[in-house]
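1st attempt posting a full record on here, be nice pls
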Amino acid sequence: MKKIKQLSLLQTKEKLSQRKTISHLVDLKIEAEKCKKVSKELEEITKRKNNENQEITTYSFQADRQLVQKLMEQREILSNRQEFLQQEQVAITKEISKSKAKNDILEKKKIKERVKVLNKADLKLADQYNQIVKR
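the predicted structure (as tokens):
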């Protein structure tokens, strides 16, 4: 029974770890969606700035070019962030699948251990029965 309890505790620990990992995965997906949204907005702003066809002063032109350059830099940063988040999601997904496999193995071991305990109990009962019958 002690071994079964240990396996149950290990299984519970693995389930908690799995839940924590899944929660982290959900957070990463939400963050990735936010990055996509901000990236699209930056792209729209950049397009609007590039499509403006009004007469502007030299200073205004330079300021607009600098703004567009900063927007492009931010888009690149967000693109890198999205790539990183996707890699993290893949890694976490692998970790979750490993955790599920480990949980399945623990369950199988627990079942085997229960069978052993039940077989021992059956043998003890059979021995007791045989002793009673001999009397």
